[in-house]
Design brief:
Number of domains: 2
Radius of gyration: 19 Å
Largest sheet: 3 strands, antiparallel
Order of helices and strands: HHEHHEEHHHEHHEEEHE
Strand order of the largest sheet: 1-3-2
Number of strands: 8
Strand content: 5-15%
Distance between the termini: 54 Å
Helix content: 40-55%
């Protein structure tokens, strides 16, 4: 049984929101962050055969997109991988393997909603997580952020396959997220179930705003999507932190 086509007005709306238009296609990390903020969540490297917004489709800028067999020589695929790494490095959206074990971006405004579905309560972690995942989580709670080599040594999960499975498990449960593509580091998601902030990208005005909001009310996790990039220090090294929610 074939699915009937959607009305053209819906497809046109998706063309605009999902950047399936050559004039709207994503070509930079800033545009990728705006795209993720507009759609709420997006797959990384899926084509038109899989439903939903995708960074790869947004980079291609057209409806009928199909991943080539030889992705290493495809310019659009390479640009998607580059933008994915840049967005991860900037640390302004959540990135992890979620539904179906597929890598996915989630906008700051939707972090708590996704976590409400997938993140187990702390009292249920013993039943929800494997032994290896619990050992890694114990180290992450103590150290907050570690390179994968140090994390393997500290947790005692030295077998590569078991370590990878445990990390994937923690990502699916939204307990940790990947915050460095090249160094392969992991940081635990804050107890507020909110987005991680890349503090080193803030200027003095944004830091002051964050302090005031932390003291008076819950911070708006979307304001970082509009950071003035002229004030960004090009040599800054992002440090992941979470707002004080006491």
């Amino acid at each position: 049984m074939t699915t009937p086509p959607l009305p053209e007005q819906i497809e046109l709306h998706r063309d605009r929101m999902w950047r399936r238009d050559e004039d709207l296609r994503v070509e930079s990390a800033v545009e990728a962050e705006r795209f993720i903020g507009d759609v709420g969540f997006a797959n990384t490297l899926t084509d038109a055969r899989r439903a939903g917004p995708s960074l790869y489709i947004a980079v291609c800028g057209r409806r009928d997109v199909s991943l080539p067999r030889n992705v290493q020589k495809d310019e659009e695929t390479r640009l998607t991988w580059y933008l994915k790494d840049e967005v991860m490095r900037r640390g302004r959206v959540y990135y992890a393997k979620l539904a179906g074990g597929r890598s996915m971006f989630v906008a700051p405004a939707l972090i708590r909603h996704f976590a409400a579905v997938w993140m187990p309560l702390r009292k249920d972690e013993r039943e929800a997580l494997s032994d290896a995942a619990q050992r890694i989580l114990k180290v992450l709670r103590r150290e907050h952020e570690l390179a994968t080599g140090d994390l393997r040594a500290e947790s005692g999960v030295t077998e590569r396959a078991a370590f990878t499975r445990a990390l994937d498990e923690l990502q699916r449960q939204m307990i940790c997220d990947r915050v460095r593509p090249s160094i392969l580091r992991f940081a635990i998601l804050g107890p507020s179930r909110d987005v991680a902030y890349a503090e080193s990208y803030w200027n003095s005005e944004e830091r002051s705003l964050h302090r005031r909001e932390s003291q008076n009310q819950r911070p708006d996790p979307t304001f970082l999507l509009n950071v003035n990039l002229e004030n960004v220090r090009s040599t800054a090294s992002p440090r992941v932190m979470w707002p004080d929610r006491r």
